[in-house]
Amino acid sequence: MLLTWVLRLPDRERFGIRKRSAEPSYSALLGVGAAALVSHAAEAGAFSGMTIIAGRLGGDAVAAYQILLNLLAIVFMVALGFSSATAVLTSEAVGRHSTRDATRASVAGLLLNTLFMLLTALGVFAFSRFIGRAYTANLSLAAFVSSLLWLAAVIIPPDGAQVVVASALRARGDNWFPTGSHLLAYALVMPLLAFWLAETRGQGVTGLMLAIFVATLLSCAVLCLRLWWHHAAPKAASPAQSRTPAER
Fold it and tell me: Cα–Cα distances in Å, from 11 out to 24, 206, 210?
């Protein structure tokens, strides 16, 4: 339905929708998509793979981990929306060769998302008892989940921030750095740390959630530093490049 709507746009001739174009090339589009594919597959696969560790801890551990993971996934959907909007505005500014506007769009998206994530985290923490009861009628499991929701609350802000910054970087053409960051944090650090904390240290589901927090914080910090580098590098190279054509 969407494809039909696009092909029948009144402005389809002006935008050249039905014409072949060298800009942007399909290879460039596939470059963005392939990097995002590997990144999301590694992240989602690592989170799901940790269910194996939870399964070794017992039935209640699996149930609690899946409930907490589901809650994080629901909130993450909102962060994905912010990341898409940030990518559109950032890439639009990059296309205009306006470094200042690109940085402004990226930072604005990150700040708005972080504000929403902080408010959501506060809500999760404040209503932890009700959230636990909403997920299960098993009172002991509900109490167990509620006792761990403070960990979900601290994971939410950096988890949302890292996906927004990753999209902002890809909008600048930096496709594979976020993928490498996600592979390091989620495919390597998180499962190893989770196994050590949950089994070796005997921390159970708390250890799994702590591993997610550390990996998410690591990914967020590395990506934010990369975004800052993109902002600072043009200024260091040539201050005139960061000015818009109107300012020049």
Answer: 19, 55, 52
Full DSSP string of 24-89:
S-HHHHHHHHHHHHHHHHHHHHHHHHHHHHHHHH-HHHHHHHHHHHHHHHHHHHHHHHHHHHHHHH
Nearest to 128 by CA among 115, 114, 144: 144
Q: How far is CA 200 from CA 3, 60, 69, 197, 211, in A?
A: 52, 19, 22, 6, 13
pLDDT in tens, 25-72: 677 778 788 888 998 898 888 988 899 999 999 999 999 999 999 999
Among 149, 118, 117, 115, CA closest to 135: 149
CB 50 within 8 A of CB 133: no
